[in-house]
Amino acid sequence: VTSDLDVFQYDLDDEEESPLITKPNQQWAVGLNDRYAIYNQYLGDPKSYDVHAYDLKTHNNILITDEVGSQSGEDVGGDIVLYIDGGACGKLYAYNLKRKTKQLINDSTCSPTRIWENIIVYTQTNINGTDVYGYDLRKKQSFPIATDDGFQEVPDIQDNNVAWLHRLDDYNAIKVKNLKTGTVKTIYDSSTDAL
Q1: Predicted structure pTM score
Q2: In the chain, how many H helices and how many E strands?
């Protein structure tokens, strides 16, 4: 038996909380911009999740996925919603809310995936770990961002800067790459020596 779980909003000016999305079963917010709140809805079956957008301007609910299995909303940028078909890992899609069309971005990735304007960032498995890739929606092509040895994980993007966690044996670092200049900076690193 699962209890209901709803999405609330908090107004920082008025310091008031109010319900935003209330439905049977469970739903939780996964993305927000100035127009849309993106949320996942659990439908009661262990492998049944759908992705929705709530239009903050019109107060309309938009069903993005209505397929068998689990789809997991990831992020929203402008009118583009990212979701993974398969749950936490699977095929990455970009859904255009205005055109009501979806586009396959990558055949196999894991959460999280992020979008900033026309650039999507995600992880991709390689022989010895994972890499971070980008996808340019205008050019309709993918490009490598971080392909060092080990694992490049949990990418995020803002403006032209992509941040990620780099893990290799006992080394961990948070790195940032400027997509315009190609410059990579390590903003934090640590290592542990085995005794």
Answers
A1: 0.90
A2: 0, 18
